[in-house]
Amino acid sequence: MDFKPLRDHILQLAISGQIVPQLDSEPAVDQIGTAPAPEEVPFEIPEKWQWVPLANVCTYIQRGKSPKYSEIKQLPVVAQKCNQWDGLHMESALFIDPATIPSYKPERFLQSNDVLLNSTGTGTLGRVGLYNPAVNPYDQAVADGHVTVIRADQSMILPPFVKYVLTSTAFQTIILAAGSGTTKQQELALSKVKQLVIPLPPLAEQRRIAAIVDDLFAHLEQMEAAYSEFAGPMTEHFRNTALQMAISGKLLPQLDSEPEVKQIGTAPEKVPFAIPEKWKWVELGKLATSVQYGYTASATTEGNAKLLRITDLNNGQVDWSLVPYCEISDQDLAKFKVSVGDIVIARTGGTVGKSFVVEQLDNVSNAVFASYLIRIRLKGDLPVSVGYVKYFLNSPTYWASISCSARGSAQPNVNAKQLASLLIPLPPLAEQRRIVAKLEDLFSGVDKLGRLVAFT
């Protein structure tokens, strides 16, 4: 679950006057400065609030100073890498040359609750934090030239409220749009920061806003920790449990009307677990016309066939528009051409065992599978469902077998012989189809629940 949209929603309510009620006992904010009220604003605010330039409610706004660094750990420099969304990371700080300390004016030394705004670079520009001396093991700190220090006039505005405003989605959009320069080296000019027009509530209301936002964020952190500890693993546990029940005959009842499976190949002497009487243990290779290594070729931007690689398999899906091409002869194309219903399995590396069932080719006329994949093409005249095999290839039993087969070398590997010898529990064909339908229904429900929880 992504908690960021909920945090963003809370911040927007907070900075637009919708998170706490306005009280008659609190006076309206007087217009600060001589500049007229802005004609265009990003959202509406209560009558008692005012839109004001950030510079009008701060005692100090300045970029940090480019330091001369030293190995002497006396005065740390807060750089952009220190100023993260989850707080200030002083362990990442470098140190200035002590001989240069006298060149720093008193106002350049960071003060408690200074707002720190990263002002350079795509991906870092716009990141906002509050300076907390408690996380700094040294007496003082300064900012480097990529961080803008914003010191609020606390007789008018609270530092946490400044942070809420600048962190909000509305103002992050404004800040990023105000950046200039190359794509990789965006710069937020000091003048742009000072000119930011922000909403200003009465001071007492700011305190009430800060209290409720801090409380809500504290609860969110607890929810996030609980979700990380339980919900994610529980969802994975549910899927694994359902898959294991499905391939062991415990997910659905066996029906008298469904005939017993005939043994295909030799019955194994040792089996992983007990299965219903009508089921049979079968070697995966006995269900296939071939268990075959892929085609060796270099990926190109042009060619006469798409080249499906391990890296193209993403969470059981393939975006065929991103799959590269290769050149292949007609003879090899006939041997390695991918068809709907084919199963490909990664045979090496960190993704060893990962599988993909080709369910559609998205109008791709010719596609072949690369050499680090193994293809299994099921026999069309046997009572086996490709959907059932697909779910078996995601089950704990399958992954335990892959783990055992891939051991013994620095680079995990499985070969075609090992895959062909894997034992698969085979139910009657009608029951396979019922199992597939039930799993699809269960997993669809889990996915919908996940989306619902994420949305709320």
Automatic annotation (TrEMBL):
One function term, GO molecular function aspect: endonuclease activity
UniProt family annotation: Belongs to the type-I restriction system S methylase family.
Organismal lineage: Bacteria, Pseudomonadati, Pseudomonadota, Gammaproteobacteria, Aeromonadales
Species of the source: Candidatus Anaerobiospirillum pullicola
Domain of life, source organism: Bacteria
Keyword Cytoplasm part of the UniProt annotation: no
EC number: 3.1.21.-
SUPFAM superfamilies (alphabetical): DNA methylase specificity domain
Classification via InterPro entries: Restrct_endonuc_typeI_TRD, Restrct_endonuc_typeI_TRD_sf, Type-I_RE_S_subunit
The protein's name: Restriction endonuclease subunit S
Domain Type I restriction modification DNA specificity residues, every copy: 46-222, 276-444
Keywords per UniProt: DNA-binding, Endonuclease, Hydrolase, Nuclease, Restriction system
GO terms of biological process kind: DNA restriction-modification system
